[in-house]
Amino acid sequence: MITPAIVRRNTPHRYRMEAQKCAACGKVFFPPRLVCTCGSRKFKAYALPSEGKVITHTVIRTAPRGFGDEAPYCMGIVELKDGSRVLCQIADCEPHRLKVGLQVTIEFRKIQEAGESGVIAYGYKAVPER
Ligand SMILES: [Zn+2]
Predict the structure, then answer these.
(1) Domain 49-130 carries which CATH code?
(2) What is the pTM of this model?
(3) Helix, strand, coil shares of the chain as percentages rounded to 5?
(4) SS3 5
(5) In the chain, where are the structural domains located?
(6) Distance from residue 86's CA to the centre of ligand 1 (Å)
(7) Tens-digit pLDDT profile for residues 83-101
(8) Rounded Cα–Cα distance for residues 25 and 36 (Å)
């Protein structure tokens, strides 16, 4: 049986914004991968910074199944303070406020209501700084 604790433990990149840093060359990967581009398989856990800025964005008006209630909603690529980039929803943001350079903070939020499986999905979203 897969419990929420097992899911949290096995998906640290999703729940704690945990990336991996290659022990050989220092390259950072998010989400984690098994082999670095340098060939090394040794990685250390690396906590991504939570502040960054939007570098590109779009507005989803025709949402996929399960997200229809949220449309229209904003998605974007956020460049974090260390230069890492993550693709995520930009929450609490009206589409007309969305712009390149918008300062955001990454927060742990609910992604999707419980579906047929009964599991509520959580993950990270970017929220404009107040
Ligand atoms: Zn490497």
Answers:
(1) 2.40.50
(2) 0.78
(3) 15, 40, 45
(4) helix
(5) 1-47, 49-130
(6) 20
(7) 999 999 999 999 999 999 9
(8) 9
